[in-house]
Write a structure and sequence with these properties.
The protein is mainly β. Helix content is about 10%, strand content about 50%. β1 and β2 form a beta hairpin.
Length: about 170
């Protein structure tokens, strides 16, 4: 897991550093400069870097998300969709874990398509053999599904990378 975390940090750092403007402020509170958001599954964590093909889209997804013992979620995700040519920086607000499956909900902080900033983003991954992921879906703020009662997601096998859920 240490190698996957280092790889993810190497992938996230250049992408976040390359943003040409500051992310929009959120209503979240901070503690020791870590954004504290909504609740999810207590003591759950998920880390992943994945490339996968979903129909005509090649997707690239990376994320680091943790829940505390009191179910407070902190985390970030980056997503790129080749079909839409969209890059999204997502502030993850909920991680729900059920076995080897993790469902995420977040808010788009920044994107090369400013019309989607502030929208809800939600997706699901599976730590299995093989690892799987869904596309990242969008909804108007507050209109997406609850991550603690996840719906059904279409999942595909990842072509490269790894997903670790604990």
């Amino acid at each position: 897991m240490k190698h996957a975390t280092l790889l993810l940090a190497a992938v996230l750092a250049p992408a976040i550093a390359s943003c040409d403007r500051a992310p929009s402020p959120t209503a979240a509170r901070t503690a020791d400069e870590v954004t504290i958001l909504e609740t999810g599954t207590a003591n759950a964590s998920a880390v992943g870097v994945a490339r996968y093909v979903f129909g005509a889209t090649t997707a690239h997804l990376s994320f680091i998300v943790n829940n505390s013992s009191t179910s407070v979620t902190t985390g970030k995700a980056l997503y790129y969709s080749s079909a839409a040519d969209i890059v999204m920086d997502i502030n993850v607000t909920c991680l729900h874990k059920s076995g080897g499956t993790a469902t995420f909900l977040g808010t788009i902080n920044e994107s090369n398509d400013t019309s989607i900033e502030g929208k809800d983003a939600y997706w699901q991954v599976v730590d299995g053999s093989p690892d799987q992921a869904s596309i990242v879906s969008l909804a108007d703020p507050g209109q997406g599904p609850s991550c603690t009662t996840p719906g059904e997601f279409d999942l595909v096998n990842i072509a490269a990378g790894t997903i670790i859920i604990s």
